[in-house]
Amino acid sequence: MEFNVLLVFMIIGALIAAETRDLLSAVISVGAVGFIVSLAFLFLKAPDIAITQVVVEVLTLVVLVRATLRNDITTVKGMRGKIGLSFSLAVIVLITLAAYPFFRELPHFGVPLLSQGKSISGFFLKEGLRRTGAANVTTSILLDFRMYDTIGEATILFASLLGALAILRRPSHKKRGARDKEERIK
Predict the structure, then answer these.
(1) Tally of CB atoms within 10 A around 107
(2) Residues 31, 95: one domain?
(3) Tens of pLDDT along 58-85?
(4) How is residue 104 annotated by DSSP?
């Protein structure tokens, strides 16, 4: 049931992003869809992928907002601005109310999710040192049992960071000076 609610919100966000004429609204809608995807990963018991999704989503939003603000500067005045603000607040309240049951089901801080009986954590604790030779269980999980997953996540984070840096970098002074000289000649 909870997962279906997330899917409905993702579809609504995608439709808003596709149908709106305001670029900034479309970027915000795409960002909302991305964050709902990260919540879906949390409910599917994949917190590492959820964290990667959040990082990539934040970097993508920074890049898209910067690109959008250069091209689409609009101001909303009067009654239309008040209606938009009330609609936004209503959506935030609805999302919060819809997400509340999910967060109520999470265990309290310090309570383990899995017991050490017949669970994957018990297997890692029992077999980690013997199979990998790593004294640190976390290291054996990240670098041996889940090596490809960890490499994939690190690659995604690195690529998204490089992409954000490439788009957000400032032009060099030499190029800027050459452009100023060309403009003065014209």
Answers:
(1) 8
(2) yes
(3) 888 877 777 777 665 556 566 766 787 7
(4) H
Residues 57 and 95 in one domain: yes
Are 88 and 164 in a shared domain? no
How far is the CA of 150 from the CAs of 59, 66, 138, in angstroms? 19, 30, 12
**Tokens at residue 94, please?**
């609805």
Query: What range defines the domain where residue 35 resides?
Result: 1-106
* Judgement on whether residues 26 and 100 belong to the same structural domain of the protein: yes
Quote the number of domains for the chain: 2
Same structural domain for residues 101 and 40? yes
Q: Kindly report the CA angle at 44 between 108 and 157, in degrees rounded to 5?
A: 95
Task: State whether 75 and 3 are in the same domain.
Answer: yes
pLDDT digits (tens, 9 = 90+) for 143-154: 777 777 777 777
Extract the tokens encoding 143: 């670098």
Amino acid at 142: L
At 102, is the secondary structure helix, strand, or coil? helix
Q: DSSP string covering 2-13, please?
A: HHHHHHHHHHHH
Check if the beta carbon of residue 41 is closer than 8 Å to that of residue 50: yes
- Whether the CA torsion 74, 78, 80, 82 is positive or negative: it is positive
